[in-house]
Write a structure and sequence with these properties.
By secondary structure, this protein is an all-alpha fold. It contains 39 helices and 4 strands. It has 3 domains: 17-210 and 265-513, MFS general substrate transporter like domains (Growth Hormone, Chain: A), CATH 1.20.1250; 569-761 and 813-1012, Up-down Bundle (Growth Hormone, Chain: A), CATH 1.20.1250.20; 762-812. Helices cover 67% and strands 2% of the residues. The protein is globular, with a radius of gyration of 32 Å.
């Protein structure tokens, strides 16, 4: 029998794997499109002064750059939602993606403000189609129990798209011009289009007509209202034109209401306004857009116009708002399953109101830090509101009307944004004009007051000071006072709007009004509150909550239904993969992130740049040593638990790095950060071991290595941007909110990933750590103190002895942290040597090349970091190519080729790096270096995984990662020692000589490693470890007859099974066949908890579908 009200399944029915994968592809595509269209809401904020200068635009024109886009979204979201319920959500999403990408290109080509405004409006047509279908696409793919996670990710994307607009826009505007903020949409749109066409499922709704009359009247009402607000200061609020526009807006709005009441297929069901929750959600959406998002526009104008920051610097100073929004958005998604949406919406809007109210303290003499606390609080409020708004908007109506409901919610967001910018912009401009007239009274420039006020409001305060005749100091003071006075006034209004929205959410939003289908799939009450009772829902005493607390699942091959936990295996895998990816990016990004900032760090600590090589070496050394023990700790205590411990250490060490008062404490904090990083990585290998089959594990590990390689090259670029435009301490403080968010979201105690039990050996890591530290210290001190001095020689000798002791102990240990027998395999040894040499050359050469850019070319940290962009770009292009090729041709041709490209790049640098070299001559070297890394990392990782037994793949990958980090640490120390023998940091003329010698050594090591890598196993080798063998499955044996089949058991078909094929000479002697005990069936990984346990059910048709007793 099945449990009451459980779903009925046919015999053998299971969830198709492609269905499970498709929903995550859908989430990715929808998030990409949403991020792109919301990014364009605020990405223009920091570019407005540049647009005004290039297109000779005034403040009204700049308002239309934003309002044309917002109005287009607001007007067409409802129509696009209805259209998606007719044609299908995927079709409408794809059409919108094409339109949006096309007119993004037109915006970049605009030659006047009018053309730009029109193109922005047409760009919004495509954005409306994507935005209206985004939430509906997620709702159709994810069950109610999974929507909290999906909407949490989507909410984080929404918050980051809005909040990161100024940062991305500032970087693109300063580096490539304002046109780049539109051109960047083209490659993203093309990739998203390909994925949407291949991965999304089209599910048409029930609507059969589009309300064209309602669309026209609604558009006319909004357009007239916003135009009147924007032009009110120019024409006069009592002028016939402005009054006529307000009257037209009112008449069109009344007509729209009448049309919707009489229409058979209205675009907006006015009956929804009878629902208090609908009223509250709509008010909250309007309030958050009209207050928080509008704030971003005016704050970025203040940073550039009054404080004089560049576009990139202004964008980076919006980073606190972005990070807090990213931190709280996924947290809100997780809390939405436990806390009513009214509480989250109210709390978020109250935080927004409080943060904006705090920023009313800004005056003419304030610096940007005066707004910092307010930005943090506003970002937290924005993050808390995104997921509840998305979830509640589609929960108000039946699933078939999800497109319309999503469009309604998005419409109120965009109406709030358009109205907020227009209304607050009008008040802002009027306040500035009043203060300019008062400040310039009785001066010759009073006749230009209107023109001056318009240019100040448009972000051109500095242009006003430079090009206006009169007292420059007076004009500058008037500009600052008038601008901040306008900010204060609109901030008060925005804060009041946010608080009013919080009150509306608290009073109107009710949990019981939200729609949730019961277990049987029919409309009715259940879940997190339900709509009005229906006659076909479950009985009152059984409200159908099993889909939220758990579910019923049949065991394939039987007629038995078992109760399994709510969290499906796919959800656990996705969560674990997400955290593992975050860990990899953080770990490898921080390896070299400090290198572009070393001159600034040395200046603050009054230390030489050469002495700061420990900033890299200490991190890499601690990471490599602790990683070997981290694997054992993760197997013993759980990878998720060690992830939490490592992340806590990593974040605490990042804070210590940012607060370090001297170079000694800074290096110690970097070593501690490397320790925490080492405890993060085992989660990656645990996911590969538990979540992927043997056939796919090498691909997963290779992908992880590819991600790490890209993060390694991205480190100097990110570090240069942060150190150049903010402060080098931001390189570490940026880890804090991200780490806190990850700690809040990690599912500790719910699911754990463990490996085989192993004894913890504390002596081995101590020997390795002490010995390697002694060797590294000797290499570092040798050039200054002399290689035979009483400090260096004993350190090198003691280090060598301790390392030898470590090797001897590991060879004799029962549970070693380093499996020395792996090096007996020629393929593994070749891959390990190739990885060690590549890391040695790469780390050391990048350390010295970036030093060359600082010392010889006198580049700033920002410029030095950005000059490494060709390497990152080449790696981004070739890493996925190498992943595909390694599957087809194997690692043998790719690894030597990657090492040869790296050797050629280093040789090019050694030849071209002269005292008067131009950056153009260095570009080929950077490109070849990135290409070498892109071709190298994934094939090496896959070769390591394929060269050993499947059960040893994790240990092999951990060993390879540790060798890569240790190679980098010794590469920095070794190549710097060679550099010091022939050159000097202090003299720019002597720097190229030392660099030349060090780089030729690194090039030789890379070239030699390419020869050593030739024995790496190829895909088409005859002897392939862990090959898949096809053969008949052996029937079960009985105690009486080992070769017979159990009574009544049918003959089994041929199945594929994993068998380890090793060298014949190493096969152990075959032991006498022992019949298995019937009461102890063979253990397989449980598909629910991923653990190996004895199963309750053991059907012969498919033993891998069973549920272990713990989950049962």
């Amino acid at each position: 029998m099945t449990a009451p009200h459980s779903a009925t399944f046919p015999r053998g029915a299971v969830m198709a794997p492609e269905d499970s994968a498709r929903k995550w592809w859908t989430l990715g595509v929808v998030c990409a499109g949403t991020f792109m269209l919301l990014l364009d809401t605020n990405i223009v904020a920091v570019a407005l002064p540049s647009i005004a200068r290039d297109l000779n635009a005034n403040f009204d024109d700049l308002q239309w750059v934003i309002d044309a886009y917002s109005l287009g979204l607001a007007v067409l979201l409802l129509t696009a939602g209805a259209l998606s319920d007719i044609l299908g959500r995927r079709h409408v999403f794809v059409i919108g993606l094409v339109v949006f990408t096309t007119f993004s290109a037109v915006c970049g080509l605009a030659w006047s403000a009018t053309v730009l405004d029109v193109a922005r409006g047409l760009q919004a047509v495509g954005g409306a189609m994507m935005f209206a279908t985004a939430v509906a696409l997620l709702a159709q793919e994810f069950s109610p129990a999974e929507r909290g996670t999906a909407f949490g990710v989507w909410g984080a994307t929404t918050a980051s798209g809005v909040a990161s607009g100024p940062i991305i826009g500032g970087a693109l505007t300063q580096g490539f011009g304002w046109q780049a903020i539109f051109y960047v949409n083209i490659p993203i749109g093309v990739v998203a289009l390909v994925l949407a066409l291949t991965k999304l499922k089209n599910v048409p709704g029930e609507q059969s007509a589009i309300d064209l009359a309602g669309t026209v009247t609604f558009s006319a009402a909004l357009l007239a209202f916003v135009f009147a607000l924007i032009r009110g200061n120019d024409y006069g609020w009592s002028s016939p034109l402005i009054i006529g526009l307000f009257v037209e807006a009112a008449v069109c709005l009344v007509g729209f209401v009448a049309i919707e009441l009489l229409s058979a297929a209205p675009m907006l069901q006015l009956s929804l306004f009878r629902n208090r929750t609908f009223q509250g959600v709509s008010a909250a959406a309007f309030a958050v857009s009209g207050s928080a998002i509008t704030l971003v526009i005016f704050i970025t104008l203040w940073l550039q116009s009054i404080l004089g920051y560049s576009p990139l610097a202004a964008g980076l100073r919006m980073l606190p708002l972005t990070l807090t929004a990213l931190t709280f958005a996924p947290l809100a998604g997780r809390l939405s399953a436990r806390i009513p949406p009214s509480v989250l919406l109210c709390a978020g809007l109250l935080l927004v109101g409080a943060g904006i109210a705090y920023m009313t303290r800004i005056d003419a003499g304030s610096r940007w830090t005066a707004a910092l606390p307010g930005l943090l609080v506003v970002g937290a409020g924005m993050g808390l509101t995104q997921s509840p708004l998305a979830a509640a908007s589609v929960a108000i109506v039946a699933p078939a009307k999800a497109g319309m409901a999503s469009g309604i919610n998005s419409t109120f967001r965009q109406v709030g944004l358009a109205t907020g910018i227009a209304a607050l912009g009008a008040i802002f401009a009027h306040t500035i004009l009043a203060h300019v007239k008062a400040g310039l009274a009785n001066t010759p420039t009073i006749s230009q007051a209107a023109s001056i006020a318009s240019r100040i409001a448009a972000g051109g305060a500095q242009d006003v000071v430079d090009h206006t005749r009169g007292n420059k100091l007076q004009i500058e003071h008037v500009a600052a006072v008038s601008f901040t006075a306008g900010l204060t006034r609109i901030f008060l209004i925005a804060a009041a709007l946010a608080i009013a929205g919080a009150i509306a959410a608290a009073v109107l939003v009710r949990k019981r009004d939200l729609w949730a289908p019961p277990v049987g799939g029919r409309p009715g009450p259940g879940g997190p509150g339900a709509g009005p009772p229906t006659t076909d829902g479950p009985p009152p005493e059984s409200p159908g909550r099993s889909q939220h607390r758990g579910g019923d699942r049949p065991v394939r091959g039987t007629d038995v239904t078992v109760r399994v936990p709510m969290r499906e295996r796919s959800g656990l895998i996705a969560c674990a993969v997400a955290f593992a990816s975050i860990a990899l990016v953080a770990v490898w990004l921080d390896m070299l992130v400090v290198v572009p900032a070393l001159p600034a760090i040395a200046g603050d600590f009054h230390a030489s740049t050469q002495s700061l090589e420990w900033a890299v070496s200490a991190y890499a050394l601690a990471f490599g040593v602790v990683l070997l023990s981290g694997r054992v700790l993760a197997d013993r205590f759980g990878a998720v638990r060690m992830f939490v411990v490592g992340l806590s250490i990593f974040v605490a060490a990042a804070v210590a790095c940012g607060l370090a008062p001297n170079v000694e404490l800074f290096d110690a904090a970097r070593a501690l950060q490397g320790t925490g990083a080492a405890l993060l990585v085992p989660l990656t290998f645990a996911v590969g071991r538990n979540a992927f089959s043997d056939a796919r594990r090498e691909l997963a590990l290779g992908s992880a290595w590819g991600l790490g390689g890209l993060a390694l090259l991205a480190g100097p670029v990110v570090g240069g941007v942060l150190a150049g435009e903010a402060d080098w301490r931001w390189m570490f403080w940026i880890d804090v909110p991200i780490g806190i968010a990850a700690l809040a979201l990690v599912p500790l105690g719910q699911h754990e990933l463990r490996g085989a039990y192993a004894r913890i050996d504390p002596v081995g890591p101590l020997l390795a750590g002490a010995g390697l530290t002694g060797l590294l210290w000797g290499l570092t001190r040798g050039p200054d103190s002399g290689w035979t001095s009483h400090q260096v020689l004993p350190a090198l000798g003691a280090g060598a002895l301790l390392v030898a002791g470590f090797v001897i102990r590991e060879a004799a240990a029962k549970d070693p942290i380093l499996l020395l027998r792996l090096f007996r395999e020629r393929e593994f040894a070749a891959a390990a040597v190739a990885c060690l040499c590549a890391s040695f050359a790469l780390f050391g050469s990048l350390f010295l090349v970036i030093g060359f850019l600082h010392a010889v070319r006198a580049d700033s940290p920002l410029r030095a970091g950005l000059e490494l962009a060709p390497a990152l770009g080449a790696a981004l292009l070739l890493t996925p190519v190498a992943a595909v090729l390694s599957k087809r041709v194997g690692a043998r041709p790719l690894v030597p080729l990657g090492l040869l490209l790296q050797a050629c790049a280093l040789g090019w640098f050694a030849h071209a790096a002269t005292a008067d070299v131009s950056y153009a001559r260095l570009i080929p070297g950077f490109t070849l270096l990135g290409a070498g890394v892109g071709l190298l990392v994934v094939p090496v990782a896959r070769a390591v995984a394929r060269s050993v037994r499947p059960q040893e793949a994790t240990q092999a990958s951990v060993t390879n990662s540790a060798l890569a980090a240790l190679g980098g640490a010794f590469g920095v120390a070794g190549l710097t020692a060679i550099f010091s023998r022939y050159g000097s940091y202090s003299a720019a003329s002597a720097f190229p000589d030392g660099l030349d010698a060090a780089l030729w050594v690194a090039a030789g090591i890379s070239a030699a490693a390419s020869v050593v890598a030739i024995p790496i196993i190829g895909r088409r080798d005859a002897r392939e470890v862990g090959a898949t063998v096809v053969g008949p499955r052996q029937p079960a044996q009985t105690a009486g007859d080992p070769g017979s089949t159990a009574p009544g058991e049918p003959e089994l078909p041929e199945v594929r099974s994993r068998q380890v094929v090793d060298r014949p000479e190493r096969l152990p002697e075959a032991a006498p066949a022992q019949p298995p005990r019937p009461e102890e069936p063979e253990a397989f990984p449980c598909p629910v908890c991923l653990g190996e346990g004895r199963f309750t059910f053991h059907p012969p048709q498919d033993p891998r579908s069973e549920i272990c007793r713990r989950c049962y």
